[in-house]
Design goal:
- The longest helix has 29 residues.
- The chain has 16 helices and eleven strands.
- The protein is mainly α.
- The protein is elongated.
- Helix 1 crosses helix 2.
- A hairpin with a 4-residue loop joins strand 3 and strand 4.
- It folds into two domains: 86 residues, Outer Surface Protein A, domain 3 (Alpha-Beta Complex), CATH 3.90.930; 242 residues, Heme Oxygenase, Chain A, CATH 1.20.910.10.
- It is 57% helix and 10% strand.
């Protein structure tokens, strides 16, 4: 086993004892193991090495203390590592949770500009909203409903996060605030002749499903990274943004709806949903959660930065899939099993 794979400061998860014949024994809660020193190492030196494995010394320090060469120390430890009898006593270098999130947000914000806002959906919405057909606006609302309706697939997965009771409490509050938001948004579609039963028979675009499944996977396998994505998904809403007739726009999509003059029956339920999120300041949820995270090690942070690219590519595909599908007036607003 390579020395680089061994723990930095090995700690033996067993008690060192002497057998009836003077042999070295390792006592675990469930077993007693007879162990022998390798050729060239005396029994007392071997026993001294095992007793020194308290998680406080590195391999070179162990070699210096026991007089056993470093390569031989590594050779002795390798089987114990494979048996699960050795753990690492070294404390990983870690930065604060908020600092790690801040660095990740720098990556996410850059990717938002490069992949999401430069894409065909947002670029047109922000610079020439009149160029988007009404069906693209309706499609955006529909795909957001599909996302909200399936939000429990990922939000509920982190409610039992074991690392912090405080974070669990905050997540439960967030889940409670988000619950049934799809019931607010669904009112927008009555204007289109679409009811809840119609939506339940329909299916989202593949790009919407991909985003939902990816978040669901990360909520279960890398929950802290998932928590970092919430701030992006919720967005930073402006409770003072001007819309039509003195109404608050809250975000760029509703501002575009107001600008092109879409029917109030469609726009107002979406505005009501944005008002709910703005009232709870959901765009700041990630920062509030990470304020309770004590530390993030460098390897974890590096892994998050790599995942950020996949997340943003999938997020951009969600929006661009809407522009691609709903731009064609021949395509139905709802995709059902018959289509």
């Amino acid at each position: 086993m390579s020395e680089s794979i061994l723990p930095v400061k090995p700690r033996l998860c067993a008690r060192v004892e002497s057998g009836a014949a003077g042999q070295v024994e390792l006592h675990t809660p469930t077993d007693v193991l007879d162990v022998e020193p390798p050729e060239g190492v005396g029994t007392e030196a071997f026993r001294g090495l095992l007793e020194r494995l308290d998680g406080a010394a590195t391999l070179p320090e162990l070699a210096a203390d026991t007089g056993i060469e470093t390569d031989t120390v590594a050779r002795i430890l390798a089987p114990a590592v494979a048996w699960g009898l050795i753990e690492d006593g070294a404390e990983p270098e870690a930065g604060s949770g908020p600092a790690a999130l801040s660095r990740l947000e720098d990556v996410l914000n850059r990717l938002l500009e490069d992949l999401v806002f430069a894409g065909p959906f947002w670029r047109t919405l922000l610079t020439e909203p009149e160029a988007l057909p009404p069906n693209v606006y309706y499609g955006f609302g529909l795909e957001n409903w599909f996302f909200l309706f399936r939000e429990n697939e990922f939000d509920s997965a982190v409610l039992a996060l074991p690392e912090s009771a405080e974070v669990r409490g905050m997540l439960n509050d967030f889940y409670h605030e988000e619950h049934r938001h799809d019931d607010v948004v669904v009112r927008a579609f009555a204007y289109l002749g679409i009811g809840r039963e119609d939506l339940l028979r329909a299916r989202p675009l593949p790009t919407t499903t991909a985003l939902i499944k990816m978040l669901s996977w990360w909520a279960r396998t890398d929950p802290l990274f998932f928590l970092a994505t919430i701030g992006v998904l919720e967005g930073r809403l402006d409770p003072d943004g001007d819309g039509s007739d003195g109404k608050v726009a809250y975000d760029s999509f509703i501002a575009a709806c107001d600008k092109v003059g879409l029917a109030a029956e469609f726009v107002e339920p979406l505005r009501a949903h944005a008002r709910l999120n703005a009232g709870h300041d959901h765009g700041a949820v990630s920062r509030e959660l990470f304020a309770c995270v004590p530390g993030v090690d460098a390897d974890t942070e590096s892994r998050w930065h790599a995942k950020a690219h996949l997340f943003m590519e999938t997020y951009a595909a969600f929006f661009n899939g809407i522009a691609s599908y709903y731009r064609d007036p021949a395509r139905p607003l709802l995709r059902t099993s018959e289509l």
